[in-house]
Amino acid sequence: MPWFRKMVHTSQKTKDQAKKAAVLAHLFEGADGLELLFMKRPPYDGTHGGQISFPGGRKELSDSSYEQTALRETAEEVGIPKKSVTVIRKLDPLYIPPSNFVVHPFIGYSKELPELVLDPNEVAYTFSIPLQVLTSGELIGKATVPTKYGKVKVPAYLWGDEVIWGATAIITARIVGLLS
């Protein structure tokens, strides 16, 4: 997260009243061992337009749990059927101030990545990064990114032309931490 965000304390009341969402960090056996799936959102006027993310979204009344939200959104956005995902672990929720969401991340696994069917309204494209590369530390860097507050220099994972920052980078770092 940007350095200045660490200096701002968000009250529990703000977090309790925030919108609720869930995401799935999907692991699968790829050509280089375990890989983590990412998606790029298409450009749009919202806070997270054009950013790298994990499949996920807002909890709906029909969702019985945050895990169900993550699985439903993953099926809707990238076409991975719920039945093909084994949820390994829930991570601690994360508050995202710019969009006022509390996101509940889950780690999922499947033996192989099924053929993806992308919702073009939600996903521009997907890519994956081998866990071996993520845990090596070689992708950690900084980037200047456009935000609704202007351009900000942030810590990030840098994979080719992709800049993984913000909540997605925090969740990725938590996964890397679990594996270290």
Could you characterize the architecture of this molecule?
The protein is of the alpha+beta class and 180 residues long. The protein has one domain: Nucleoside Triphosphate Pyrophosphohydrolase. It is built from four helices and eleven strands, in the order H-E-E-E-E-H-E-E-E-E-H-E-E-E-H. It has helices at 12-17, 66-78, 131-136, 166-179, and strands at residues 19-30, 33-40, 52-53, 56-58, 86-90, 94-96, 101-110, 125-130, 140-147, 150-159, 162-164. Strand 10 (150-159) and strand 11 (162-164) form a beta hairpin. The model has no long low-confidence stretch (mean pLDDT 89).
The CATH superfamily title: Nucleoside Triphosphate Pyrophosphohydrolase
Strand content is 35-45%
Count of helix runs? 4
The CATH topology comes to: Nucleoside Triphosphate Pyrophosphohydrolase
Number of structurally distinct domains: 1
Query: How confident overall, as mean pLDDT?
Result: 89
The helix content, as a percent range, equals 10-25%
The total count of strands amounts to 11
State the separation between the terminal residues, measured CA to CA.
21 Å
Main pleated sheet:
8 strands, mixed
Order of helices and strands: HEEEEHEEEEHEEEH
Outline of this structure?
This protein is of the alpha+beta class. The chain is 22% helix and 39% strand. The chain is built from four helices and eleven strands.
Which key features would you list for this structure?
4 helices, alpha+beta, 180 residues, globular, 8-stranded mixed β-sheet, 22% helix, Nucleoside Triphosphate Pyrophosphohydrolase
